[in-house]
Amino acid sequence: MRKYFIAAVSAALVLLTSIPALADEGMWTYHDFPSAAVAAKFGVTIDQAWLDRARLGTIRLANCTASFVSPNGLILTNHHCVESCLAELSTQQNDLVGNGFLAGDRAKERRCQTQIADVLVGMTNITDRIAAAVAGKSDRTANDARKKALTESEQNCEANSRKDRKSGPLKCETVNLYNGGQYWLYQYKRYTDVRLVFAPERDIAAFGGDPDNFQFPRWCLDMGVLRAYENGKPAQTPQHLNVNFDGPKAGELVFVSGHPGSTDRLLTVAQLETQRDIDIPRWLLRAAELRGRYVQYAKSSDEAARSVEDQLNGLENSIKVRRKQLDALLDDKLIAAKRDAETKLRASVAADPKLAAAIGDPWSDIAKAQAVYRTLQLPLTFIENGAGWGGHLANYARVLVRAADERAKANTDRLREYTDTALPRIEQQLAAAVPIYPEIEIIRLTFGLERMREWLGPDHPLVRELLSKESPDELAHRLVSGTKLNDPSVRLALWNGGRQAIDASDDPMIVFSREVEPEARALRKRYDDEVEAPVEAASEKIARARFAALGTSVYPDATFTLRLNYGTVQGWRENGVEIAPFTHLSRLYERATGAEPFKVPDRWLAAKPRLDMTTRFDLSTNNDIVGGNSGSPLINAKGEVVGLVFDGNIHSISGSYWFDTAMNRTVAVDTTIIRTALHDVYDARALAEELGIR
Amino acid sequence: MRKYFIAAVSAALVLLTSIPALADEGMWTYHDFPSAAVAAKFGVTIDQAWLDRARLGTIRLANCTASFVSPNGLILTNHHCVESCLAELSTQQNDLVGNGFLAGDRAKERRCQTQIADVLVGMTNITDRIAAAVAGKSDRTANDARKKALTESEQNCEANSRKDRKSGPLKCETVNLYNGGQYWLYQYKRYTDVRLVFAPERDIAAFGGDPDNFQFPRWCLDMGVLRAYENGKPAQTPQHLNVNFDGPKAGELVFVSGHPGSTDRLLTVAQLETQRDIDIPRWLLRAAELRGRYVQYAKSSDEAARSVEDQLNGLENSIKVRRKQLDALLDDKLIAAKRDAETKLRASVAADPKLAAAIGDPWSDIAKAQAVYRTLQLPLTFIENGAGWGGHLANYARVLVRAADERAKANTDRLREYTDTALPRIEQQLAAAVPIYPEIEIIRLTFGLERMREWLGPDHPLVRELLSKESPDELAHRLVSGTKLNDPSVRLALWNGGRQAIDASDDPMIVFSREVEPEARALRKRYDDEVEAPVEAASEKIARARFAALGTSVYPDATFTLRLNYGTVQGWRENGVEIAPFTHLSRLYERATGAEPFKVPDRWLAAKPRLDMTTRFDLSTNNDIVGGNSGSPLINAKGEVVGLVFDGNIHSISGSYWFDTAMNRTVAVDTTIIRTALHDVYDARALAEELGIR
C-alpha cells in the first residue's frame, strides 16, 4: 500500500510450534509496552535492552517507517516509500520508478532532497506541565495557552540539546496521546542527508498495482534501500538491526516497530458521524474526479504517464483507504458498538459524582462543536486547507505568504506549523530542486478552482473575486505560466526576504495566494476557536474518564509516533476459504498477464530458470498496524528483521476505528525473497555483502 | 435539472391575493387527483374536462416531459431535453448545442432520430387481473407469472388497438403503482417523427452551467421547441394548451402536469439503507472519476469539448442529484422518521390479526432480500448492468446479442425489455444514424474495464478471461477500432439476421459481448429470483397494509408516468434570508463574467438596449416534482401554460425520499422571458406567430 495506511512490525522466536489466532490488538508506546502480557502469552521476555535496540533501529521517514540494517547507515524501507524520491530523480530519458535503481558503489548513491530520517532517542512525560498551563482557563484561552506551552517545550528542548555535547542537536516534538490524556516530548536524532541505494522496478515492487493494493495473497517486492549520511559520510549506526534472511515461520511471534499514522478508535460517536456524513464522502468525490483527470492525462503520452505516476499512485491508495473507511462507518454494527461503549463510559462517570462534577458532559460539548464544524467544513476545506487551489506551486506560495507573517511574530505566538522547530523542514522542502510539471500543476489548480466554485457556489465572495473575469482554466494557465516559483532560488529569495519581499512580489502565484489569505486566516481562526478549542477541552475530559475507568490498559490512538506491537504469522478465513500466510515465487509467473500492472520485469523473466520457485514471497500476520507503518521491520523475538511490512489486507482499513481480530491482517515482504532478489536477480554484490547475504 | 430529476407543473388563477406557504405535497395520478382538496383549499374547480385537456396536452419524451402548444404539433420543452438531439445533429463545423437552432420555416425542421412523443390517451386498472395470475404461487413462480401477465396485457392491448379504427395503433405499457399495490395499463398515442424547431444558445439556456444547476435564483432560458409529425406532415393537435405570455403572479395557484421519473418515498428502511450504504456511494465514486476523465478529455481540443459536452452535462447533473440524495439518507432524522412510520404501520398490521395472518412480516422479507442483494451488487452492476463496459458501441452489442436470444422465445417468456411491445423502440435506436466518437467510446470502455478489475478483483474469472493478455486500454482500443457497429446498416443487418447472424459475427464488439453474456445472464437470473421476487411479493403485502391503514389518501411513488400536482408561486427562507420567487433580466447581465458558464451570448448582448430589464426570467413554486418533470408545463387554473418547469432547488433533491415543505421548490422559466426571447432577441417571427405572440 502507499505512504499513509499500512503496516506493523512483529518479530518472534517460535517457542510454541503452533499458536492459535489471537487478538493481538494494540499500538503500544515504547514507554508503556505490555511486556508482561507478552511473557504470559508467549513465554518470551521483552526486556528494556530489547526495547531500546528495536527503538534505536527504527526510523521515521517523511511519511513512512524504516530501519537501520547495517552499521554504515543502510536503511531498509518500502519501494512506495522511496517512490517520490525516484520520481524526483527521474527524467523523460531515465525513469527510475519504472526501471529501478542500483547505485553499485557509494559514490553513486543519490540524494533524496525532500527526505529525512528520524530516530527516537528520548521521551519525556510533560502532561503536568501542559495541565498547569491551561488550568482554570476557558476553552478558547486554554487552547491558545496549550499551544504556547507546547511550542515552549519544544523550543527549550532543542536549545538545551544544542548545548549538550553528548546528544548533539535534536529535533523535539510534543506528542498528544489519548486525545489530550497525556502530553509527551519526544526527542529525535534527525538525518537530513538521505540517499538512494537501491530500488527494484515498479513492475515487481508494485506487481498488481492498484487492483492488488490492500489485497493478499500478494507478490510485491515492495522494498527500497536508502543510506543516512552525516557530514558527507555514511552515518555510523551501530544500533542497527540484523536481518535474518530465512524469514519467519507460520505461527511465529513477530513484532512491528513503526510509526502508525493515525487512527480514530477513541473518537466519540458525534465525531465518527462527521467523518461518515461529511468529511469522507466529500473527500472521496473530489479524489475520484481528480483520479479521472490524472488517468486521462496519463493516457495522452508516455511522458505524461511517467510524470503523473507518483501522484496518481498516492491518490489511488488514499481512495481505497477512504472508501473502506466509509464502508466501516456505514456499518451500523460499528456505530452501535461505539455508542454502546460511549454509554458505558458515561454511566461510569455518572456513578462517580466527584468526577462527574469535574468534567460535566464533554460528549455533548463535542457534539455541539461538530455542529459548528459542519457549517464551516466546506469553506475551510476549500479556502484554508487547499482543496480550492492545489499543486506544488500554489502550495509553495501559500507557505511563503503565510510564513512571512508568522515569522514576524514571537515564536510562541505563531501557528504551530510555523514555529522555529518546524522551519528547517520547510526550508529543506522549498530549497529542493524537484521537478515541477506545468501541465499537472494546471490540472490540479483548475480542478481546485472548478470544484470550489461548484461547492461554495459562484456567488461566494471569494469565488466571485477570483473568477470575476477568468474561467478556472484561464486563471490556472495564467498563474502557472507566469509564476517563477518553480525555481528553488526564487523560493528561497522570497523565504529569506520575509514580509517585505512577499508584499513587494508581483509573482502571480504569490498575488493569488495573498488574495486568498485573509479569508483563509479568518476561517482558520474560527475553526481553532469554535471547533478545536472545545473539542480539545472535552477530549481531555473524556480521557480522564477513560483513565479513571480503564487506566492505561488501553493504548492511545496512532499519532505517527513510535509504537510497538506483537502478533503472529497467520492467514485468515475469507468466505469459508482459508487464506494461507505465505505466497511463493511460482505463482508470480503464473499470474502475470504481460500487461501492466501484471507484468513481470524482463530481469525477473530472464532470471527465472535459476530461481527456486518455492521461495516464499509475501506473508500475512495479525499485527495491528495502519498507514505510516509502511517500511516497518517485522522483528522476531531475537530482535532480527524477518520481514518488511508494506500493506494490510482489505479488512485492515477498518482498523482506523476498531480492530477486527478475525480479519485484520498485516502484509509484509518475506526476507527470503529479498535475499533471492539481491543475490540472484539484481546481482547487487556490495549491497548483499553489507546485508550479510552469503 | 437535466433529464432525470426535475420539475412539476402547476397552474392557477389567483382567487386569493396572497396564499401562505402550504405543504402541497403529492404526485397524483390523473385517475386519483384530489380535486376536492384543491376546491377546499383554493376555491378552484378542477373538473374532468380540465383534467382531460391537461392530460392530452402533456407529452412524455424519451427522458422528459413536454406539452403541445399549437394545433399543428408544436411542442414546448427544455433545452436540456433537446440537447441530445442538438448534439446528434451537430458537426465539428456547426455546433448546434453552442450556437442554437432556428428552423425558420417548417421545411427546415430537422428530425430528432432517437426522440419520441407519447400522449396518454387511456388508463385501465388491471390490479385484479395481475392478482389472479400470481395467486397461491411461491415468490419466485409468482414473479415469473406476474411478468408473463403484464406482457400479455400489453400484447393484447396493442393488438386490439391496431384493429380499432378510432384509436389507431397505440403503445400499451403496464404501470406498477404503490410498489405493487395497483397495476394499470396505460395507453399512449406515440409520435416517432419528432423534429427540431428552435433552441437557444447553450450559454443562455444553461447560464451558470453545472455550478448553478439546482440553484435558485437563476437566469436560464432552458427552452427548446420541437414538432410532432405524422405521415410526413405536422401532426394535428387540437388538444394543445394555450400559452399565456404574462406568466404567473406571486402566490398564484399553479399545477404541474408531467412525468416524474422516480421517487423512493415508500421504500422500507432496509431498502433505503441499501441505497445509502452501497448503491449511491459506489455509483458516485465511479461517476466522479468518469467526470474527471471527460473533463480532462474536453480540455484536449475544441472538438473534444464539443463532442463530449452532452454526456458530460448529463453526468454532472446525475452527480449532483446522487450527492444530495446521499446527504438526505445520511441525515439520521430522515432514517428516524422512516423507521418511525414503519413501526407505526407494522403496529397497525399487528392490531389486525386477519391482515397480520395474511401478510406475515414483509419488512423482514425485504431486509433478507437486501442482504442477498448486497452480496450480488458488485458483479451485477459491472457485468449485467454495464458498469464494466459502457459506451454506445458496447451497448449496441449487448442489445443485439441479447435480443437475438430473446426474440427466439415466445413473447411472454422473454425478459420484459425485449417483448414485442418494446422492440420498435429498440429498432428506432439501432437505426438512428447518430455520431459515434471513437475517442469517447475508448474512454468509456477503458474506464469500465479498469473499474471492473478494481472492484471485482483481478482474479474474478470473467475479469481474468477478458484481461488475460490485454490491458483495459489495449482491449478497448482493439474493440472500438475493429467494430463496425458505428454503422446503422451493420446494426440493422445483425438485428434482422437474428441469432444466426450474431453467432456467425466476428465483429470484435459482438465477440466481446458474447463472452460477457453467460455470466451476465446468470447474475440477472439470481437477481430476479433471489432479490426481485421476494421484494415484489413483500412490497405488495406492505401496499395492502398501507391501503388498509390509509386508503388512497397517499399518492404512489413516481414511475415516469403522468402525474398532476398543485402548488403556488413562492420563494423560501434560506439561512434567515428570504428568497424571492422571481428573477429579472437585469441581473443576468450583472452576473455575467464573460467566461463560460457565465457568459451571455452575443445575441443577448446586442439585444440588451432594446430589452426591458425588469422582465421576469425564472421563478420558483412549491410544487412537488422530481427528475422526469423537466419540460413540464406550469399551468394556471384556466389551463394555460404560464411557465416551463426545468429544475428544482437544491433542497428538492431530498424529494426522492420525503417532501420538505419549507425548502423544496420547483424552478421554471417564466413565459414572459420566452416572449421576449422569441420576439425581441431571436426575431423568430413564424414561431412567435404560431404561439400567439403579438
Oligomer: homodimer
Into which percentage range does the β-strand content of chain A fall? 5-15%
Q: What is the β-strand count of chain A?
A: 21
Report on the biggest sheet of chain A. Answer: 8 strands, antiparallel
**Overall tally of structural domains of chain A:** 3
Structural class based on helices, strands and sheet pairing of chain A: alpha+beta
Q: What is the CATH topology of the largest domain in chain A?
A: Thrombin, subunit H
Mean pLDDT of chain A: 94
CATH architecture of the largest domain in chain A: Beta Barrel
Provide the spatial order of strands within the biggest beta sheet of chain A: 1-14-13-19-20-21-18-17
The first-level CATH class name of the largest domain in chain A: Mainly Beta
DSSP helical segment count of chain A: 24
Main interface by residue count: A-B, 51 and 51 residues
End-to-end separation of chain A:
30 Å
